[in-house]
Amino acid sequence: MSVSFERPDWEAIRESGVVAVDMHFHTNCSDSFTDVRSAVRLAAERGVGVAITDHNLIESLVKLRNENVSVPVIPGMEISTSDGPHILVYFYELPDLERFWFHSIRPRLQECPWLALRDCPTERLLDLLERENCVVSAAHPMGYFMTNKGVEVCIRKGYLAEEVATRLDAYEVICSGMTHESNLQALSSAKRYGIGFTGGTDGHTLGEIGNVVTISDSTTVDGFLDDVLRRRVDVVGVEKTVPKKLQMASASLGKFAMHSPSALMVQTNQAVKSADRGARKAAVAVKEITSEFIESASELETRIREIRKR
Asked: Can you point out the beta strands (E) in 40-184?
């Protein structure tokens, strides 16, 4: 299991016969304008597979059900939890993903369906996924834009226990939308927890597809996902340049504008929850410090009394 921060050599990948998959790509089913069929065609030209991971939605995957595709397409979803972190889930079979979505995700969708679900914090989601035949990875674990949209950043802030990370199969250790430092921190944390690696572009524009890939020697989707679980994959890719990040952001903002009142409300609620968690954490710290001060003062007073008695 290795990680290389370099641009994938698509020609070499094709010639080697290995399977390389961009494990984090969005379509116009959620916050991108990219058509899924265009994404699959370009992936085929580049000789890579793709995991379609729209936020909380699976419509693009359903569109491909009867399509004749020449590259591996992994049924997936990026789930936006109600407490912040984004969780990538990959299913072996589309019908299993459809069933899970219908029973566990669809009832929790908000007006802007690709934003945070109702009543589905990270640990509750992991409880739901325990019964499923799937692979679970934390998307961009260090979050982005100073938000709590990553598992690791929430652990470091004390919002989630470290045990949450060990319930995952993997961390996304190269996400091309993140900074190099954030990816390095995600990689270091994954190694510390002893979990696996995945990598993907978090692509929202067509040209991004395949710029980060997860590589397996297997030739089937089932074998590929098994290799992720067994930690037998390599991750290769590079972070986006600043202009590319701005291009992606503008593409996403265009879709969010269609749901601006709802999107603003969800983001505001999450910001308020984050501030509340921070305030409660500070209050606990102050209480502990005050308690220690009172205890020390009491001990000092007792010693003074003993000295006076002498």
From this structure: 49-52, 73-80, 86-91, 134-138, 170-175
Per-residue pLDDT tens over the stretch 269-296: 555 555 555 545 544 444 454 455 455 5
CATH, range 3-259:
3.20.20.140
Distance of CA 290 to the CA centre of its chain: 38
Sheet with 19-25, edge to edge strand ranges: 3-4, 234-237, 212-216, 19-25, 49-52, 73-80, 86-91, 134-138, 170-175, 196-200
What's phi and psi for 279, nearest 5 deg? -65, -40
Question: How far apart, in Å, do the first and last CA atoms of the chain sit?
Answer: 69
State the chain's maximal CA–CA distance in angstroms. 94
> Where in the chain are the domains?
3-259
CB distance 78 to 24 below 8 Å: yes
pTM recorded for the entire structure: 0.83
